[in-house]
TrEMBL record, chain A:
Record-given protein name: Sarcosine oxidase subunit beta
Organism phylogeny: Bacteria, Pseudomonadati, Pseudomonadota, Alphaproteobacteria, Rhodobacterales
Catalytic activity: sarcosine + O2 + H2O = formaldehyde + glycine + H2O2; sarcosine + (6S)-5,6,7,8-tetrahydrofolate + O2 = (6R)-5,10-methylene-5,6,7,8-tetrahydrofolate + glycine + H2O2
EC number: 1.5.3.24
Annotated keywords: Cytoplasm, FAD, Flavoprotein, FMN, Nucleotide-binding, Oxidoreductase
Rhodanese domain ranges (all copies): 35-79
Naturally occurring in which organism (per UniProt): Marinibacterium profundimaris
Cofactor(s) listed in the protein's UniProt record: FAD; FMN
InterPro entries hit by this protein: FAD-dep_OxRdtase, FAD/NAD-bd_sf, Rhodanese-like_dom, SoxB
Family: Belongs to the SoxB family.
Any one GO MF annotation of this record: nucleotide binding
Class of this enzyme: oxidoreductase
Pfam families, sorted: DAO (PF01266)
TrEMBL record, chain B:
Pfam families per the UniProt record, alphabetical: SoxD
Gene source species: Marinibacterium profundimaris
Lineage: Bacteria, Pseudomonadati, Pseudomonadota, Alphaproteobacteria, Rhodobacterales
GO biological process: tetrahydrofolate metabolic process
Protein name, per record: Sarcosine oxidase subunit delta
InterPro entries: SoxD (IPR006279), SoxD_sf (IPR038561)
Length: 417, 100
């Protein structure tokens, strides 16, 4: 596989860019692997990459029912931040942000991580109090986050409407400067290329229909559309479909799958300098490098696997955006889509071992797992390789819903994105 | 936008009038103190999350205000039926008859 650098770019420019080689082969399944990862999103591909690059485990397959990166990885609004309330979450998301910073260099693939800052708007007294609490908790954890007054918010993000008569008045905001965005597809592609380069098979358009277990209960392998594949270990990273897949191994998960929608506008010149989140009205916005406004909404109210979602929600989101940013009220929207997100009762992920020997799970990222991709993939690979959790993911167990040791970001009201 | 039939008002109305209220037929134990942690986990947190027909509760929030039950296919989002709270769970095979 070609290493990308100025020289190869120049060489291929001279030959009209006709001689680039493929970045990963379209593999067919072998009969047996050391590790099979179900789901070729950023989390699954990343885990394969770290298994190969950090643990020397290369007899690995990543299997997807569709194209790699075609799930939530390729559908999300790419907000990256780490200012979560609880110690456990702060460690996990900050670990991810640490990895984001060096990811393009590590992968030799430009994931376009952009530290443009994320501003969370406070529209009411409750927001003000809860964001300030977050800021203090974050600073104790060494996570940057600071309070901006209304005027400072306006300075930081000029398109903002801070009129006291606004329908959603801006009473200030929490700013994490280290937060930002990245190019979602490039994350999947970069990890895929890095994994394939080290011998990992990436098998696309091959749904896993069931997980098989040995008579002693341990994992035996997976049934797929292309037949049975044996595996010593199976790791499931299938986002909204995780509970469906895990059920075939007899493992129940506290997950509910909801549609989450997003939309983009026509592309315009650079106008929007940062990421703005408005949790109270469920509107999330940034501008892509192509110039489109990228707008995220909240989840639909009902569970679904339809990858569509309803129009009333889009109407609500666009109404909120045009209230907060009246400058955009004549922008035309080009496309909208939905992804299926896997939501846990406490809004924190489940990342670790399962009651089945040799079966691992990384799920429950809900509406906010893109930001965690490198961190989660890194500790997931560790867990699979060593058959024990990394200290960072150790609290994110499945059995916390029995013991009651929740990581209750839901109650902390940090709407995840 | 989903169109939902309220079995109390006997009208089919837009989704915006309704709120979703989670999986139906989740029964709280008669004698809570007899329940162990695993049973509480089941009751509080474990849900079917069915891919396909799903028994669920809705509330006609901006109408009669009442809770009722529904069977909806979570792949197509099509409602197979709605029925009053307290009615028995309808038989799935008869609902699926006549569906494509
Ligand atoms: C509209 C939207 C906006 C979002 N915005 C943000 C945001 O701003 N910031 C943020 O941090 N997060 C955001 N998220 C959440 C984020 O996208 C996800 O948490 C994250 O991308 C999950 O990554 P993943 O690799 O686990 O899942 P995915 O990328 O969904 O990968 C799972 C893969 O599993 C495959 N699969 C499923 N079932 C099977 C099977 N039976 N056999 C084989 N393969 C299977 C799927 O095809 C899929 O490719 C958003 C999500 C959506 C939908
Ligand atoms: Zn009614």
């Amino acid at each position: 596989m070609t290493r990308f650098n100025a020289f190869t770019l120049l060489k291929n420019a001279v030959t009209g860019h006709k001689n680039w080689t493929e970045q990963w082969p379209d593999s067919q399944p072998k009969s047996e692997y050391d590790v099979i990862i179900v789901g070729a999103g950023g989390h699954g591909l990343g885990a394969a990459y770290y298994l190969a690059s950090q643990h020397g485990i290369t007899n690995v397959a990543v299997i997807d029912k569709g194209w790699l990166g075609g799930g939530n990885t390729g559908r999300n609004t790419t907000i990256i931040r780490s200012n979560y309330l609880y110690d456990e979450s702060a460690r996990l998301f900050d670990h991810a942000v640490d990895l984001w910073e060096g990811l393009s260099q590590e992968l030799n693939y430009n994931v376009m991580y952009s530290r443009r800052g994320c501003l969370m708007l406070a529209h009411n007294v409750h927001d003000v109090q809860s964001f300030k609490r977050h800021i203090h908790a974050n600073r104790l954890n060494g996570v940057d986050n600071r309070w901006l007054t209304t005027e400072e918010c306006k300075d930081y993000c000029p398109p903002l409407n801070v009129s006291p008569n606004a329908r959603y008045p801006v009473m200030g905001g929490a700013l994490q400067e280290r937060a930002g965005t990245a190019r979602h597809d490039a994350v999947a592609w970069g990890y895929a290329r890095g994994a394939a380069m080290r011998g990992v098979d990436i098998i696309q358009n091959c749904a896993v229909t069931a997980i098989r277990r040995n008579p002693d209960g341990s994992v035996a392998g997976v049934e797929t559309e292309k037949g049975f594949i044996k595996a010593k270990k199976v790791a499931v990273s299938a986002a909204g479909h995780t509970s469906v897949v895990m059920q075939t191994a007899g493992v129940r998960l506290p997950l509910e799958s909801y549609p989450l929608q997003a939309l983009v506008s026509e592309p315009v010149k650079p106008i929007f300098p940062c990421v703005v989140m408005s949790n109270a009205v469920h509107a999330y916005i940034s501008q892509s490098d192509k110039g489109e406004l990228v707008i995220g909404s909240g989840t639909d109210q009902y569970t679904s696997y339809s990858q569509r979602g309803g129009l009333p929600l889009i109407e609500h989101t666009v109404a909120a955006i045009t209230e907060v940013f009246p400058i955009f009220n004549r922008m035309r929207m080009l496309r909208k889509w939905g992804g299926i997100v896997d939501v846990t009762p406490d809004r924190s992920a489940i990342l670790g071992k399962t009651p089945v020997e040799g079966l691992y799970v990384n799920c429950g990222w809900g509406t906010g797992g893109f930001k965690a991709t490198p961190g989660a993939a890194h500790v997931f690979a560790w867990t699979i390789a060593k058959n024990e959790p990394h200290p960072i993911n150790a609290p994110f167990t499945l059995d916390r819903f029995r013991t009651g040791r929740l990581i209750d970001e839901a109650a902390a009201a940090a709407v995840a994105h | 936008m989903l169109l939902i039939h309220c079995p109390y008002c006997d009208e089919t109305l837009p989704e915006a009038e309704f709120t979703y209220a989670g999986q139906a037929h989740v029964v709280r134990a008669q004698d809570p103190s007899s329940q162990d942690d695993g049973q509480w986990e089941d009751f509080l947190f474990m849900r079917e999350n069915a891919r396909g027909p799903h028994y669920e509760r809705w509330r006609h929030f901006h109408g009669c205000g009442r809770f009722f039950n529904a069977v909806r296919d979570t792949v197509s989002d099509k409602f197979l039926t709605t029925y009053k709270a307290g009615d028995a769970r309808p038989d799935l095979s008869s609902l699926l008859e006549g569906q494509e």
